[in-house]
């Protein structure tokens, strides 16, 4: 019997015990021993059996039969049990022992790594405890200095108001003229612009990772450390998009205001930002082509995507793509120059074939190449609103299911669905996510603004939940985050509602540091 044959049915073999295997006396004739084997009946018989019951049968001497069976047993022992079964079982035992040894070794290594990781974390906490406490105290002192400075400015303004009141009521003409000149040089030339940075002490943003979702011995996920750099106030009612052209120039647009703003944000932390009005149009999304010479804009009130020369934004631009019956929404430029755009004929909670919605793939010359609506199994989207192409070529699309519900659908450049992100793995199916906008950083981490929960989801490029990001409660709140953009300079821009009574929007600049 070959080894392969043995291994095929070894699990089916069994040994059955036979009771009373040593019958040496005849069960029919008391005291008579077996002397032969009846070959006719295949039964052991005694002398009385031979002359009575088995009379006329053929018989085989018991000693000859015993010798033949001994030879058979020895043959099985040498050729089968010792040469095949014993070798096979020995090999199986060695393999089992090797497996046990490997598992024990792996367990010991895992325990060591976990212990080392724990000790390293504790050491890091102890090492940075004093530094963090000192940073907190420094923040308090800076806040107190800021309060004193503001109080001093307030006192100066009150004093100027008192001076104005006295000069206007009792001063001469020369005194009024001199006061006017002083006020002009002091206030008009230094008046705040409509987009000013809130002068605050920058603090680490809150970072809420789900460590139980991590495989500490698996993929090496690169998660950045976030640091709030500045907050800029706008007079837009609802931000629809943020894109960064250069490190000191950021573009924003709001669908409730027919104005596109071009912000120059200085690299110095506490410098004022300057606003430029670009064009009167209801811009939903913008994207820059390679070389940063042309900007593409989608408009919610017309069925077209238009291209503009960045240096001559006062012009009307040129038609890039006519999307026919579809409204173009979110837009992004691919690494190879193609343009991906979300498009939909109308908004509906139900997925029907007669309602067109999907993702357009457009060439760099404006020709529609594909319209990704469904894959081989089902429709891809309910209402695609915005998208981004990740570093690995995956197109990540925010898909709205209702006004307060959404998910992320990842497809390849051929329109095949790769994976979806519905919610963090630990959350309840009833938990809604009001996903508004999506972006990615230089290592492929995906950020999605969750407006109803006042947070930003951070997931890996394969769809694994990494963390929630929110602002420090005592200083900055990410209040209903809307537009997002991760630029090429290591900054994350978050557009959200401000806490001012008029419900305008603010743009938060967050620096991302990778270890």
From TrEMBL:
GO terms for molecular function: ubiquitin protein ligase activity; zinc ion binding. Residues 21-62 form the B box-type domain. It comes from Magallana gigas (Pacific oyster). The keyword Protease does not apply. PROSITE patterns: ZF_BBOX (PS50119). It comes from the Eukaryota. Keywords: Coiled coil, Metal-binding, Zinc, Zinc-finger. GO terms for cellular component: nucleoplasm. Residues 133-160 form a coiled coil. This is B box-type domain-containing protein. Pfam families: zf-B_box.
